[in-house]
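LAB NOTEBOOK - FOLDING QUEUE
OPERATOR: T.R.
BATCH SIZE: 2
PURPOSE: Compare the predicted structure-token outputs for two unrelated chains run back to back under identical settings.
PRIORITY: normal
REVIEWER: second-year student, initials M.K.

ITEM 1
FIELD SEQUENCE / FIELD STRUCTURE:
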Amino acid sequence: MTTQQAFPRAPLPLILALAAALLPPPAPAAGQRELALDAGADGPLHRQDFRSYTLVLHLPLGALDRSGRARLLLGATLGGLRGGGEESTLAAAGPGLDYALGRRLRLRYDLQGAWLGDHVLAGRDLGGPFQFLHRLTLVAAVGRRAVAAAGLWHMSNAGLYDANPGLSGFLLELGVRY
């Protein structure tokens, strides 16, 4: 027998405003950290009517090679997942890899442990509150500080629970480097 604990749901603008207020102020010449808003939707193969919208922070931890093209990142995500008119809070954190493909283009992979406030959306059980969130994005520098990205995302619990339907889709991201 399993019990499900309900978590309070806060409106997304309140969550994003609180997260932005708690983040450290931008460093004048750092230019390595990124703060972005992203929106994701399920792919045409799944047709599950799920959407995600999150505030994403990436902090560089250091270069992985001598050229500095490959970097290790720490990522944090706060936002929501919506399905069938129901909404759940989403909070995630974990490592990422960032590889420079050129001066203005990078390929980034994130693997984050995620916590869902409510893992049953629109009558669909996602298994449990703990999930793994994967993102593969192509990030382009737009101007001096702005970034735009497009990519794929996948979330599942990797078999931790009996139900493991997984969600996959596309994402778009707009952000700023500081």
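ITEM 2
FIELD SEQUENCE / FIELD STRUCTURE:
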Amino acid sequence: MASNTKTGNSSALLKKYKDNPTKLSPEQKDQLILEYAPLIRFIAQKIAVRLPSNIELDDLISSGVIGLMDAIEKYDPTRDNKFKTYAEFRIRGSILDELRAQDWVPRSIRDKSKLLDRTIMELETTLRRTPTDEEISAKLNLTIEQFYELLNEVRPVSVLSIDEHATFSSVDKKSILNLLEGCKFNNPYNELNLKTVKDIVAKAIEDLPERQRLVLSL
């Protein structure tokens, strides 16, 4: 029953927002952010699995909060797209922008990644097909073991080339739908997990610079 009430509240807010986005109060905007906390975590975790372990998930979530706030402010209800879809793009884009700004990938790793890309492209042009691992490693004068080590080393670089406007797969969309609309907290662990997410999001809002926090009160 509580879950249905939450979904109803969120739907009512979004309907009000669609009818007249300027009428949302700061408290209602804050409620929207908390309602979409699972989406922020979902996207942050999806990106985090491709990053080095020193990148904190909480930092990605904080960037995602800013993206959701941006989505709330800039969403155009007259266009033919759902708010949730638009929010996905803004959250993902905000996280990737922050990663780019941090420039957390060492230059040496970037150079290796570029060399690998060039080598693969050259082999594809010459062979007119996708080269095998053995062919790529031979071209780079590496053993197959060294080649696999290189792949593991440059793997995090690929996260910054994620298309910001890429759509989620049908499986991902189903997962998001379950998180946002179909969650029935049948055990204390799940309820605690969502509470943790919402606490992180709430703290992220408090920690924002004053100028960005003011977005909620516009």
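REVIEWER COMMENT (ITEM 2): The first helix runs from residue 2 to 19.
FOLLOW-UP: none requested
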